[in-house]
């Protein structure tokens, strides 16, 4: 008996050769056990934003991502990103536009590394991240666990991360530019039917420290921020038309007061020759922060209060339209091109009044990427 | 209605035979079955030696010419064929299809092929001489040909299982011309019961195997054959000698994948008297009926 068992444990040559055939094992089963393939991806993103009469920021951002399985039950994955930013100081309250004067050129380098160990029904991952730019350093550590049912129709995810950031602006001395944040996530992915998947995550983030914009002389924000967000996504596969519909909604509650709602929809259509075309649309709306004061300056502001005029914290609505084209090649290579256009207006605010006197704001992203599984 | 407890059955013709697909455990099984059967037909179109526009025909037309570019799937199938060639010590050879033409199983009255003609056919057989890589193939001599017939059907059965499971059909059974692959057990929790056909009483099952997940494939001398002077010559031919095998009437093998079960069953037929030891060494469940009608194997 023992001899038979030991023979069975040696790799059957036919089975080993068969597993090299494409589509011989379900990808869904592989997704939650150890990935058997590595991924190498190189992406380039070009971002630009503008308001009437002014080009503002532009960012060029090449990035690299690698995932590699090792020693049967482990994966290691890591990424590196380099951002080159140039343009005006980001998003100054437009009535004071130009007061900051100086243009900004900055570079950010960031990297992260994560190691995951897979077991029969669960996995545990440990990660670290580091980001550096001229006036800002961020360090983070994370721990995550995933558990799935035997039929793999249900997956639960838990994660915990701690971030320590430090801001030391060139414009002025800060007594304490440190900020610590803890992030928690609980999520579930459930297959409802052969063609329907729903995914829901709750995240909670609690931060203490310096949240103000050091480049804006009158920007003082609370020293504590708590953000609770609930995001749900639903995917439906239309087998006959070889397409997938994705619907999403996120509610975010922010102790700064800027509660927001996000609705998104995307349609991934497979075409001939391994090409997938994905148009997408997103609507976003947020309330203004409690300490946001609109023009004419400083309407309603009393000395000693928290204050910001950052238009990112005003009340507005925004729409994003995007299109992505991807092509997969049989040998594991794939390429993609994407373009997204973003438009933000006070008048598009839903569930409340938009902030007054804010110019519309536009941005666009153009992305290109290439990846290879190995 | 409890959709999970019922089975959705589709019968379809492909790869020259009658096939059946049973699915359970999910909704919209119609479209799941359609997607899976589309893939069987895709594999048939791509590798059929009867179609001028197939990859197989393109490779065979290029025999003696320059290398031909191939895609990943074709390269993976060639890699699998290489394993079969090595593990069978050259008995199983995807370049041996011409031997079936030499042994004309349709000729009336049947005769043994002319020895000279058989030798000429054997000269164009030999996987070891084929130049291939993950991106190209070249058959070195004009007249050489490849044939995925011994692999393609079983590969298609395994792909059906994959596609259906990816569409959340948790229970399923696919039978492609006698090669069976099952997964997830039956919707009521019991195992799939796979019957094994008697090699001489074709409508009768001589044994059964209970399987939740896995495959059963059978190779036999009864599919295509001729009887000459009281001796049966079947379509399973040793690529080294050009002679049909005769030690077994049929061999059935249980394995995790249909393609693995199919290779073991066919190569066991080709191994003749060495098959029993070879199968036992592999540690698989099997059932064979030898030339004398004796039933052997772990399932006997």
Topology overview:
The complex is a heterodimer of chains A (374) and B (300).
Chain A: H1 2-9, H2 13-18, H3 27-31, E1 39-51, E2 54-70, E3 74-88, E4 103-118, E5 122-133, E6 136-148, E7 154-167, E8 178-193, E9 196-209, E10 224-238, E11 243-254, E12 260-270, E13 275-286, E14 316-328, E15 333-345, E16 361-373
Antiparallel strand pairs in A: 1-2, 1-16, 2-3, 3-4, 4-5, 5-6, 6-7, 7-8, 8-9, 9-10, 10-11, 11-12, 12-13, 13-14, 14-15, 15-16
Chain B: E1 7-14, E2 17-24, H1 29-47, H2 55-61, E3 68-69, H3 72-87, H4 98-102, H5 115-123, E4 131-132, E5 136-138, H6 152-166, E6 171-176, E7 179-183, E8 192-197, E9 205-211, E10 214-220, E11 225-228, E12 231-234, E13 248-255, H7 258-271, H8 275-282, E14 285-290, E15 295-296
Antiparallel strand pairs in B: 1-2, 2-6, 3-5, 4-5, 6-7, 7-10, 8-9, 10-13, 11-12, 13-14, 14-15
Helix pairs in contact in B: 1-6, 6-7, 7-8
Question: Could you please describe the fold and organization of this structure?
Answer:
- The complex is a heterodimer of chains A (374) and B (300).
- In chain A, 5% of the residues lie in helices and 59% in strands.
- Chain A has three helices and 16 strands.
- The two termini of chain A are 38 Å apart.
- The model of chain A is unreliable at 1-9 and 89-103 (pLDDT under 50).
- The longest helix of chain B is centred in the first third of the chain and has 19 residues, at 29-47.
- Chain B is an alpha+beta fold.
- In chain B, strands 1-2-6-7-10-13-14-15 form an eight-stranded antiparallel sheet, with helices on one face.
- Chain B has helices at residues 29-47, 55-61, 72-87, 98-102, 115-123, 152-166, 258-271, 275-282, and strands spanning 7-14, 17-24, 68-69, 131-132, 136-138, 171-176, 179-183, 192-197, 205-211, 214-220, 225-228, 231-234, 248-255, 285-290, 295-296.
- Chain B has eight helices and 15 strands.
- Chains A and B meet through α1, α2 and α3 of A and α1, α3, α6 and α7 of B.
